[in-house]
Each structure stands twice: as structure tokens, then as C-alpha cells.
Specification:
Chain lengths: 388, 353
């Protein structure tokens, strides 16, 4: 058996077509949409057939159950509204109505051909990138194909009960920003509530802390076993996927590596991004070169007035650098594994990660570094720098 | 079981075959009479005797199905009605009853299919239409429960059932002139297969408890229509479960007040759940002591609210005021009643929360 050929074949199929699990979710959503559209066309028989087919595969799909309830009730008496269950809790019906809207919009949406604005540069070891558009209740999975982000799949997701732009502990909001998968918690260590597992992300990140935002425990996770999916706004801030989708997504996540960018308004990259990116790359290269050349004052011009490295402000940082650099005979700085992620909802801010190979006459080290660069008055400046 | 009284069980199978109905044997008629008097064992004996000689007789098998169901053997009733639908697929009544029994077991999908069969054979069969509407409503509630995780024990479910009843009564699906006509002239339609009952009561109000209880408005508004289209569900002699249970509750309180221990204890069913799993005799002895000891006892029942579960099960919640020579208390109490051999008895007694 030519195993390699077979796996290569499998891989190529997998690369060109969405995987089976993803297709199943999409089919389900389309069947649900058909059902809802059939209701609109007054074809309740078709509507019931479609919703029954959905429920056959996903009996715990509450929205489909509600639609089925309405369709059956309509045979018994005239119904006046979506979710016309007597004494139904209005808030839960409202939740499901929102899910219906979100899913209908998702079905109407074309598969994206453009690339999200937030993926300027992926490092080769970042095999995938995740971009969440909370306004569309959708998580997009992109694959890094020779440095180019390529759309793989998208999934329906739920976010915080109170929406997005998390600021503080317990505000039940989902943060917006550039994060990374921090950890993997297997289901064995969790209650059923989280489904097949969880991937904590790096909220609050350096920018959040700088803005005074707090809270913790923002995860990507699944749903309880009796629940196929949750309403668009349901969690305490986590991003929740249905279990099939979560499992499929999980296969592609790399702890400590995969970026998870959360926005409430997806922007797609355009030609301006290429220019901006080139401009930033120049700035980074100049920063590196100024450092290596031991032109400390030039080097320090790359740092913004309000720069901070955690607790160290610019003044102390500059003093320290002047002291260290003046004692050097030579410095070499090599950057590799560079990745760049423009920040959503914060014009001109980007997160830059790289491996820094530093050597000098009396000290050498290699570290993963993260910088936040911000473009001010047409010039890119570093506002944060620290170990990644 | 709560379902059963919501659905109309067709008790009368009419004019299946002219031969059968003409030579409707005395045995079957007797059995029917016994059944209506609640003497199920004797009725079953009669009908079995008849079936020994005429095993295919539809009317007798139909009656047997009703009897065994009344005896609590829904499984056998289902197999009897299923066999009838196999042998007489043109008759809607066995399908209808099969549906009601399935519904009683919560098998709504099967109930639905059976009713659709009944309607297929008789598109104007009002009872089946009515039951089908109810099945859809019930299936809808189930779906709603799953969608919204409604707590099945909470009051909303109760209200929902009541709502279904109300809905039922608001729109009685009796606008089927053919069915009513057929019923109105039963003699003329004997040779045709119609929804007719030779044993149809003249007044449904007095003999059809299920109709009276579950659909009071319909009965009041269109008594004849309902009476004719909907054959009575059960042949219980009583009319009103609530009234019966209330009466039994008062009698139970009276026996206690009169300190007549034997009478008092007779209100408790054989399978009464004794408190803290006490043995029956120990419990009886304790009650006897407590009841006879005080010089006088006065039990009063206030604010009684009765919840009917089905024709044989009901519960009552009330304020019990207890005044004895040495003690005076007031508490909320729940009694669960079951009808055994025509007599209401207590299966559970507890304080209400």
C-alpha cells in the first residue's frame, strides 16, 4: 500500500474542499434556512420536512425544535408569532429568534474570497489563523499556505451575553483584539458544560492591560451534550462553538502559536494594506539596524513617548539602553519568524511577533519578542515591547 | 395518562357489517352494559366467551379493547386495536383509538400516523380531526419543551394543557356536516360504514365525563354536535371528577371528625404510600390511636383545589384546619386520589409546600 500517495491524496482533498464536519454544519444550516424560507412561502409541509431532517441529525438543536413546535402548533391553531409556545419565556424565544437571524444571514453570505485585514503576515509555523466576526456570529478559519492566508471554513459561534468589547471582570462581554491560543484543556478536566474541551486565549493582552481592562478565562469552547448550539449572545465572554465544529477547529489550533483575532466588524484587506505593511516592515528593519549599529539615539526614536515595557516607562527604558549599548563593542540582531496582525477596532495599531537572535561582544540571547507598533503622524512607533 | 381524557376514545363501533350488527349477540350487549357499569372483569368474561365462538367479530373485539384498556392494560388494548385495523382497514374508529392509546403512552408520532389513517379512510371523521389537532398541539409542546427547556413540573405546563383544552373547545372541529348527518340518522346508515353508534347516549352531558370535563364550553355551546360526533370516552357513571373528588375529600374529613377509624381508614387505597415507609398495619394502628385519643376532633377543608389527571386520577390541595380537644393546627395538604372499582381512594397524603 502506498500510504504516502494515499495520504497526499487525502490531504489534497482536504485542502481544496471543506472537511466533512464543516460540510455537515453547513448543510444543516442550509436545511434550516430552507425551512424558514418555506415558512415565508407558506409551504409549511416543506418547512416541517426540512426541520425534521435537521432534527434527525441534531436532535438537540433548540432553534430547530422551536421551529418544529411552531409548525406543528400551526396545524392545531393559528399561530401569531415566532416561538408561539404558550407561556414560553420571552427572553429564550428572543435568543432563538436571534440565532435564526444569525444563521439565515450566514447562509446568505458568500464564502469569503478576500483576506481579513488582520493577517498581514503569518509565520511559517502558524499553520492556521482564526478570525472571529462577532457581528456575524461567525468564526473564520484560515490556513497559512506559503504565507498566504487561505479560507478553510467558517462556523456559527456565540459570544458574551452583553456583547463585545470586554473591559472588566464579570461584564459578560467578549474581548475584541489580537489574541493567541494559550492552552488546551481537555474535556476530562471540565464539566459537560464546555463540551469536548476548551482553548483559553490570551485575554487580557498587553494592550488590554495598558487600557486597564481586566478579567480572565476567555476561552474557545464547545457546548453541553444536550445542546447543539447556543444563541448568538449567550456566554460570559467566551466564544462558543457547537461540538462538531469545535472538534474540527481544535485539530488546527496550536497552543501558543495560533492567532485568534476577534472583531465586531470584519474588514477585508485592500491594496492600501500592502503599502502600510511595507512601510511597517521598513520601520522594523530600521529599528533593528539602528540597534545593531549602536546608534542608540536613533534607535530610541522608534519608541513612542508613551512607550512602556510593562512597568518600565520610556525614560527608564532609554536610560537602561543607553547604558548597555555604550558598553558594547558590537551588536548583532537577527529577526525571524516574523508575524504581524493589525489590531481590530484600533486604527493604526499592529501586533508584531518575532524571534530575536541577539548577540554582542559580552552577551547573547535568543528570545520570542512581541511589540505593539502604532502609526502616529505618518510614522510607525513602538508603544510596547516585551517577551512573547 | 394525563393525555387520555384529552383525547376522545371512540367507544362505539358501529355497523361494521350489517350481519354483525343485526345479530349483535346478547353476550356482547351484556358485556357492554357491564362495562358501562364499571364491572370490567365480568364484562371481559362475557366478551371473551362470545369471542370464543366468533373470534373475528369486530364489535366484540372493539369492546374488548376498551375493557382491557380500562383495566389498565394499554399494551393489550393496542394490540387488539392494531389487529382490528389490519382486519378492517376501512374502519376509522380502531385507528382513532389506537391513536389515543399511543398518545397516552407519549408515542405521538405513532398516534399521528394512526389518525392520518383514520382520516384517509374517512376524510370527514371529525373525532380523528379533533384528536389530530390535539396530537399536533402536544407534539408542538414537546418541541417547545426541548427548544426552551421548559420545566415539565412547573405551572406553565399545566397552563399549557389547559390552553390546549381551551383551544380545543374554542374550535370544535364539528363543521363536518356529513359526519353529523350520519350520526343524526343512525338507523339509515347502518348498512354504510359510518361514524355511528348504536349505543349512543341521548345526552352526552350526563354520560360522557370526558366530554364534559375537558370541553365544557363546547358542550355548552353545541351540545348536540358534540354529543353526536364524539361518542363518550368512558362509560363511567359519574359526571364530574372534580365534584366526586371534592365529595370524597369531605367524606374523608367527616369520618375523621366523627372519629370513625374504620371508615376513615377505608379511604386509603391498598397501595397507599405510608409516611416514612411505615408498615401498613403499624401506620393504621398509629392513626387509630391518634384519631380515638382526643375527646373531639373537627377537621375542616378549605380552599380545595382539584387537579384532574385523568378519569381515574386526581389530586386535591386544600387548607386543613384541625381542632382537637388539646390541639389546634392549620396546614396545607395534598391528597392524591385514585378511583378503584368506582370508589375514590387516597394513594398519597402529604403536606403541601
Amino acid at each position: 500500500m502506498k500510504l504516502r500517495t494515499l495520504s497526499a491524496l487525502f490531504l489534497s482533498i482536504w485542502l481544496t474542499a471543506p472537511a466533512a464536519a464543516e460540510q455537515a454544519s453547513r448543510d444543516m444550516e442550509q436545511a434550516l434556512a430552507k425551512s424558514l424560507q418555506a415558512v415565508g412561502n407558506n409551504r409549511l409541509d416543506i418547512a416541517l420536512n426540512e426541520v425534521d431532517s435537521v432534527l434527525k441529525a441534531y436532535p438537540n438543536f433548540k432553534l430547530a425544535q422551536l421551529v418544529r413546535g411552531d409548525l406543528l402548533m400551526a396545524r392545531s391553531k393559528p399561530i401569531s408569532d415566532f416561538g408561539d409556545a404558550p407561556n414560553a419565556p420571552r427572553d429564550r424565544v428572543q435568543d432563538l429568534r436571534e440565532e435564526a437571524n444569525a444563521r439565515l444571514h450566514r447562509v446568505q453570505q458568500q464564502q469569503p474570497i478576500a483576506v481579513p485585514k488582520y493577517l498581514w503576515q503569518l509565520d511559517a509555523q502558524q499553520h492556521f489563523a482564526v478570525v472571529v466576526d462577532t457581528s456575524k456570529s461567525t468564526l473564520y478559519l484560515y490556513q497559512n499556505v506559503n504565507g498566504e492566508p487561505r479560507y478553510v471554513a467558517d462556523y456559527y459561534i456565540s459570544v458574551g451575553k452583553k456583547g463585545t468589547a470586554k473591559v472588566s471582570e464579570g461584564d459578560q462581554k467578549t474581548p475584541l483584539g489580537v489574541y493567541f491560543v494559550d492552552d488546551h484543556i481537555p474535556s476530562a478536566k471540565l464539566t459537560d458544560f464546555y463540551g469536548p474541551g476548551a482553548y483559553p486565549i490570551s485575554y487580557p493582552n498587553e494592550w488590554d492591560k495598558r487600557q486597564g481592562r481586566d478579567g480572565h478565562g476567555i476561552w474557545l469552547h464547545g457546548t453541553p451534550s444536550d445542546t447543539y448550539s447556543r444563541p448568538p449572545r449567550a456566554s460570559n465572554g467566551c466564544v462558543v462553538l457547537s461540538n462538531n465544529d469545535f472538534t474540527h477547529l481544535g485539530k488546527n489550533l496550536q497552543v501558543g502559536i495560533t492567532p485568534v483575532i476577534i472583531t465586531n466588524h470584519m474588514e477585508w484587506s485592500d491594496e492600501n494594506d500592502a503599502n502600510e505593511r511595507a512601510d511597517l516592515m521598513n520601520a522594523i528593519e530600521k529599528w533593528r539596524n539602528d540597534w545593531e549599529s549602536r546608534k542608540t539615539e536613533d534607535y530610541l526614536t522608534h519608541y513612542a513617548r508613551d512607550f512602556s515595557a510593562g512597568s518600565t516607562a520610556l525614560k527608564d527604558f532609554a536610560e537602561q539602553k543607553r547604558k548597555v549599548n555604550s558598553g558594547k563593542m558590537w551588536i548583532k540582531v537577527k529577526l525571524s519568524k516574523l508575524s504581524i496582525f493589525p489590531y481590530p477596532s484600533q486604527q493604526g495599531l499592529v501586533v508584531v511577533n518575532f524571534e530575536q537572535d541577539y548577540s554582542s561582544n559580552n552577551l547573547s540571547n535568543r528570545m520570542l519578542k512581541r511589540q505593539y507598533w502604532m502609526k502616529r503622524d505618518g510614522r510607525w512607533q513602538i508603544i510596547y515591547e516585551g517577551a512573547a | 395518562m394525563a393525555m387520555l381524557n384529552k383525547f376522545t376514545l371512540t367507544t362505539a363501533l358501529c355497523a361494521l357489517l350489517s350481519v354483525s350488527s343485526l345479530s349483535f349477540a346478547d353476550d356482547v350487549q351484556d358485556a357492554n352494559k357491564l362495562f358501562k357499569q364499571g364491572q370490567n372483569a365480568q364484562a371481559l368474561e362475557k366478551v371473551n366467551a362470545f369471542l370464543a365462538s366468533k373470534p373475528k367479530d369486530a364489535q366484540a373485539r372493539f369492546l374488548k379493547g376498551l375493557i382491557v384498556n380500562e383495566q389498565g392494560n394499554a399494551t393489550e388494548a393496542i394490540s387488539i386495536f392494531t389487529a382490528l385495523t389490519d382486519d378492517y382497514p376501512e374502519l376509522p374508529e380502531p385507528y382513532n383509538n389506537l391513536a389515543v392509546l399511543y398518545a397516552g403512552q407519549g408515542q405521538y408520532e405513532k398516534a399521528k400516523i394512526a389518525l392520518e389513517m383514520a382520516i384517509r379512510t374517512h376524510p370527514s371523521y371529525a373525532t380523528a380531526h379533533e384528536n389530530l389537532g390535539d396530537i399536533y398541539a402536544k407534539m408542538a409542546s414537546q418541541a417547545y419543551d426541548r427548544a426552551l427547556q421548559l420545566d415539565k413540573s412547573n405551572t406553565s405546563t399545566q397552563t399549557k394543557l389547559a390552553l390546549i383544552r381551551e383551544l380545543f373547545s374554542k374550535t370544535p372541529r364539528v363543521s363536518k356536516p356529513t359526519a353529523i348527518a350520519a350520526v343524526a340518522t343512525p338507523v339509515e346508515t347502518v348498512s354504510t360504514v359510518a361514524v355511528v353508534s348504536p349505543t349512543l347516549p341521548t345526552s352526552a352531558v350526563t354520560t360522557a365525563p370526558a366530554v364534559v370535563i375537558s370541553k365544557p364550553i363546547a358542550v355548552a355551546a353545541t351540545p348536540t354536535a358534540v354529543a353526536t360526533v364524539k361518542a363518550p370516552a368512558k362509560a363511567e357513571p359519574a359526571v364530574n371528577i372534580s365534584a366526586e373528588v371534592l365529595k370524597a375529600t369531605r367524606e374523608w374529613a367527616a369520618a375523621w371528625s366523627a372519629q370513625k377509624t374504620d371508615k376513615y381508614l377505608s379511604f386509603y387505597a391498598k397501595d397507599f404510600i405510608t409516611p416514612e415507609g411505615m408498615g401498613r398495619s403499624a401506620w393504621e394502628a398509629l392513626r387509630k390511636e391518634r384519631i380515638t385519643k382526643p375527646k373531639s376532633i373537627k377537621i375542616e377543608v378549605h380552599d380545595a383545589k382539584i387537579k384532574e389527571q385523568d378519569s381515574k386520577h386526581a389530586s386535591v390541595i386544600f387548607k386543613q384546619s384541625y381542632r382537637a380537644s388539646h390541639l389546634k393546627t392549620s396546614s396545607s395538604k395534598v391528597l392524591l386520589w385514585v378511583k378503584n372499582e368506582g370508589r375514590w381512594q387516597i394513594t398519597e397524603e402529604r403536606s403541601a409546600k
